[in-house]
Amino acid sequence: MEKINTSFKVIAFGMIAEKIKTKELVLEGIPNTDVLTGYLHQQYPELQHLKFSIAINKKQAVGNTMIPLGAEVALLPPFSGG
Amino acid sequence: MEKINTSFKVIAFGMIAEKIKTKELVLEGIPNTDVLTGYLHQQYPELQHLKFSIAINKKQAVGNTMIPLGAEVALLPPFSGG
Amino acid sequence: MEHKRTPKNIFVQGAILPEKIANSIANHSSKTDIGGHSIFLGQVRADQKEGGNVRAIEYTAYEEMALEKAFEIREDIFTKYPLTCMHIYHSLGEVKTGEICLFVFTSSKHRKAAMDACEELVERIKKELPVWGKELVDNDTSVWKENTNV
Amino acid sequence: MEHKRTPKNIFVQGAILPEKIANSIANHSSKTDIGGHSIFLGQVRADQKEGGNVRAIEYTAYEEMALEKAFEIREDIFTKYPLTCMHIYHSLGEVKTGEICLFVFTSSKHRKAAMDACEELVERIKKELPVWGKELVDNDTSVWKENTNV
Question: What's the CATH number where D44 sits?
Fold first, then answer.
């Protein structure tokens, strides 16, 4: 039986990248954004106190959203451009 | 008995100056803006069909306004700056 | 208060050049409490008229009254909005199509005040300053300009 | 339609120079259907922070997403307002206090559309573009910037 590669890339920006001390993670076996948030809160307790949104393939996820195979997932702290 | 000089200067702008064919008039014995308007309408019938306001000493007159001695009176067509 | 409460000349002979606008912006780099600038520029359009297209607008003004009025408007806007700076420049004489005839510039700590003040300034300038534009048409006729509310 | 319906790069390394703004204005002199330009400029403030004053902001962005989003915003604004042109430039990297980090430029036949569109663009850029500013304080600490609604 072939094993499906369920890994995906997570890129972090701004204050989130600073807190988790990396700009990129590779995770696997995480089906949706709620599970991802739970995992991140557990791995990086500091993130529990920070607001961030999640983008999947460059679209902001609204509510709990499935993470497709090979997705590019991004962790976005509140925007502060301009 | 001394004669009081009641003359004042009237300056015209834009379309009004074009219609009356001068930028400056000297008038006398005209006590207020209603009389002035009547005089202008009679002297320059074309002005009857044009909108203009009157400024006395650089302030726009509202309603019938007295023309003080030696005033600078201006005939102002609708503004179109900018 | 960084602005001077004295009447300033707002009139410029002919078109307002982009370099003048760049210099005006650059002059504000030392004012490090400014967070936002709002600029409005009026540009002469080649509108179609009977017999041809507008090739230029010739501006005249009742200058002394316009300067008094501009001062009054400035004071009102400075009272109403927390601005750091405010500049108004209006052309006199001939300005060709595509050239700039009005330059209004407001600066504030935060963007909202700068934008709201700029918009109000432009409206008041168009409505209250004794300035007249005569549209010169390319067949040598002319039409007195009329301001609209848009 | 004079604008191109393809995503454009909006990012500029470092500060946006006044000369760039002047060139951008000058480039519109051939578009003689334009009557009004509205410009918003964001400038870096020397805000007081714990331990010092802001000396610069360092901007980072999720560039690909920001460009897609900027394109979407452009399309929305072009649909909503009768604009001739629209330009957005945002700095990346370090921009010192007093320098320009955002340049938004809208042009239309009449002033109201240009001004309203410019204001809406600025609000949407601040709210929707994945861009982050880190305020660098002169004692070598830093603070992540937070946008306000003013």
Answer: 3.90.1170.40
